[in-house]
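Researcher: Please predict.
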Amino acid sequence: MKDPKPINLMTCYQDTRHFQEALTYIQLAMDEADKTNFAGKHIIQMNISSIQYEDKNYPAALASFESSAKYFGEHNMQSYLADAYLNIG
C-alpha cells in the first residue's frame, strides 16, 4: 500500500490526540512546502499552532499564531489573519 500524504497522517494523529506524531507528519508537509517555496506554508504553520495548543504547549502555539498573523497581515490575507487573531484570543 502506498503511504498516505503527510498532511493526511497529521490529521489522523491530531484527531486521535497523538500530538507528537501529528507534529512529525505536519513537519514533513512544512519541509516540502519550504523546498517548493509553497505560499501556503503559513497555513500549514497554523495547523502546527493548533496542535501545539491542543498539546498544551501554549508559549509555542502563541508564538506560531503570532508569526502567522504577522505574515497574513503583511500580505493582506484578511480571512487568515482573522483566523489567527481568533486563535490568539
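Model: The chain has a mean pLDDT of 84.
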